[in-house]
Each structure stands twice: as C-alpha cells, then as structure tokens.
Write a structure and sequence with these properties.
With 369 residues, this protein is of the alpha/beta class. Helices cover 41% and strands 13% of the residues. The chain is built from 14 helices and eleven strands. The chain binds flavin mononucleotide. The site of flavin mononucleotide (FMN) has 27 residues, from strand 9.
C-alpha cells in the first residue's frame, strides 16, 4: 500500500493510526504504518516527555507523529474557575440526579477528576509542542482547525509535515490556505468529533478541493477493502482511530469498555454533544440517551460541557457502571469483534487490500491473481 506520501515519509503502508496510547503508536510504526500519538490528555509536560521517550525506545527508528488539539476558537485568558462559574445549577443537578439514579459511587477524598479544561487550551498545546519538537517527530496533526501560522512555520523549519482534520471541503480549503501539508478528510462515520458528511462523499470532494495537496481518508475504515476504496477515491492514505481501541497493546480505561466495544454493532454509536459540547461519535449509552432526551436540560457548549461531566465520567469509568459507560468510537466498531495485536490488524489490512485490488483488476479485465 504505497503512495507518494508513504514514500515521502518512508513507511511501507499508507496507513496512519491515531491513538491515545504510546504502545499502540509505536506498534503501528513498527508494523510499517505511521503511528500518531494523541496529546490532548497530556496536561503535564513531564508525562508527554516520558511517553515520547518510551516511543523512541520502542519504535525501532521508524517515523511517527503527534496530534494536538488547538481549537480554532481560543479560550485564552479564561480560568477553569471562570468556566465553572458559567455552568447553570440546573445542569449540575441533572448530573447529580443521573448519577444517583444509577447508584454511581463518589470518588475518594482528593481523587482527581481526570479531565481538565486546560488540555483544550492553546497554551497547553504549545507546551506539548515545545516538548514534542525535541523529538524526531515527522508529522504534527491538529484536530479542531488549522494550527496557527507560527506553529506551521516552526514545524516546517524542523522538517515536520503538518496535517489537519476536516469534515467538509470548505474547511479543507481553509487548511490549504493556512499552509498545511496534508488534509485528513474525516467523515461522519468516524469516532470522536465529526461533521455531517460521510467519508464516501467527503473524500473525493476534499481531494478535488485541495489538489495537489495529499489527502488521507478517515472515518469508517477498518479493512483493507475499505482502504482500497479510499485510495480509489483519490486519497493518498487512510487514517484510522477506532480499530486500535481493541488491540492488545491498548491501555483502555476499563475492561468493561473493551467488552462493550467487542459486543457493539455498527448501529450502536451516536453523534452526541454529551462528551464535550461539540458533536462527537461515541458508543450509545444510557448516559448519552439521558443528555439527548427531549426532556433533559440539553448540553452546554464547549468547553462547559466537558468540564460539567468530567468528574461524572471518571466515576462511571472507575466503578464500571455498565449502562452509562462509553467511549468515543466510530461505526466501524461493528467489525471490532476480537482483541488482536496491532501486527495482526496490519496483516489483515494488507491481505484485504490485495484481495480488493485483485478483484478490481479482474473486473477491469486485467490479470489478477
Ligand atoms: C477514542 C478516540 C479519540 C479520538 N481523539 C482524537 C483527538 O484527540 N484528536 C484527533 O485529531 N482526533 C481524534 N479522534 C479521531 C481520529 O483521529 C480519527 O479521525 C477517527 O478515529 C477516524 O475514524 P474511525 O474512528 O472510523 O477510524 C479520536 C478518535 C477516537 C476513536
């Protein structure tokens, strides 16, 4: 699975893997793909340094990248306390009532809630970048918009390619105008924050809109056949996030989450604002149902919603309260039916890709295997 872009980056397969787990990122690069570590949870620079050191020691010299979250709308100059003060009491009561209804225990005295608003702030992403530029990363991706001009310039000075996710051709053109190198066209099917256009429609639109920039197709790709379809649509590679969540190398927060992922079908996700205030695809649970119910209080905008539910989600995870327990994941969850190593996933992807290419060759009347 070689394209211009995979050759530029020196990887065997044009398969890019987004993951919050260092062990998965390193395994993706070792298997011949391109591992991208999600940095949003690293609010302490020392933790990111520790994990990048670990990747360096385990990646066998293969290339890898980092994904940061620099929201297009800045929340600078606003403290966490300021944001807390904006949360209406009715919403807080709704959280308390829902947790009480399911008997979710409290955290122990002084136990951290796990999620901080600071992970979404530009200054925190900049601290992450100060750390990351000390490592030989080859790619910097941004989730929620184009990175600022000085960050793009700094990356280019260090021979780091810059990618940005886009859910529409309009956003993709904005990224191109900002000077980025790669657009990740992420369709509606994807896990995490998504737009409203499906990958099948979005990929060729973005390819045409930003040509000759390379485009990676993301959302709903979990097999080599789907990867072949994305390349047929003009993508120079595929960008996968969900499929790695049930890999043996993944450090998923609770065993019950893995069980739910393995049991879920492709219709068991929902695009809901319950997690962060922006639409994000995730497992449908009684928690997302409660937020999306017509008689509920409705969700708050980002970053208020994330702060409102942070402690609740930590409690739900810690005590594995199954009806409420979820995770971001895409519709491809229906194909995630067993735990496998990252290498086994790659073997399957390359086998499926070859089968698809042979099939198309036969249909086109060329010699296939
Ligand atoms: C658990 C999870 C967390 C994610 N977090 C981020 C993130 O922090 N930054 C980002 O750019 N994309 C994030 N994404 C989206 C992925 O980068 C990717 O675009 C998406 O997973 C591709 O679609 P798929 O889920 O169908 O493979 C996340 C996806 C998942 C499943």
């Amino acid at each position: 699975m070689q394209t211009e872009l995979s050759k530029t980056l020196g990887v065997e397969h044009a398969v890019f893997g987004f993951t919050p787990f260092p062990a998965v990122a390193a395994a993706i690069s070792r298997a011949g793909g391109f591992g991208v570590l999600g940095a949003v949870r690293y609010t302490a620079p020392g933790d990111l340094k520790r994990d990048l050191d670990w990747i360096e020691a385990h990646v066998d010299g293969k290339p890898y990248g980092l994904d940061v979250v620099m929201p297009a709308k800045k929340v600078e100059g606003v403290s966490e306390a300021d944001v807390e003060a904006m949360i209406p009491e009715g919403h807080r009561q709704f959280v308390r009532d829902t947790l009480a209804k399911y008997g979710v225990p409290e955290l122990a005295e002084g136990e951290a809630s796990g999620w901080r608003i600071t992970g979404w702030m530009e200054q925190v992403a900049r601290t992450q970048l100060d750390v990351a530029f000390g490592y030989p990363i080859r790619l910097l991706a941004n989730a929620l918009g184009s990175p600022p001009a000085d960050v793009i310039a700094r990356a280019h000075d260090q021979n780091v390619l810059v990618a940005a996710l886009a859910g529409s051709a309009r956003h993709a053109v904005k990224h191109k105008d900002a000077g980025i190198d790669i657009v990740v066209a992420q369709g509606y099917e994807a896990g995490g924050h998504t737009g409203e256009i499906a990958t099948m429609v979005l990929t060729p639109e973005v390819v045409d809109a930003v040509a000759p920039l390379p485009v990676l197709a993301a959302g709903g790709i979990g097999s080599g056949q789907q990867a072949a379809a994305a390349l047929a649509l003009g993508a120079q590679g595929v960008w996968l996030g969900s499929l790695w969540l049930t890999c043996t190398e993944a450090d998923v927060s609770a065993p019950a989450v893995t069980r739910k992922l393995l049991a879920a079908g492709s219709g068991d996700t929902v695009r809901s604002r319950a997690l962060t205030g922006k639409p994000a695809r995730q497992l449908r649970t009684e928690w997302t149902d409660a937020w999306d119910a017509p008689d509920g209080p409705g969700t708050l905008p980002m970053p208020l919603q994330g702060l409102l539910v942070a402690e609740a989600l930590t409690r739900i995870q810690k005590y594995e309260v199954e009806p409420l327990l979820g995770t971001p994941v895409g519709q491809i969850v229906g194909r995630m039916t067993g735990e496998r190593s990252v290498q086994a996933v790659f073997d399957d992807l390359t086998r499926g890709f070859e089968q698809a290419v042979d099939r198309i060759n036969r249909i086109a009347g060329r010699s296939g295997k």
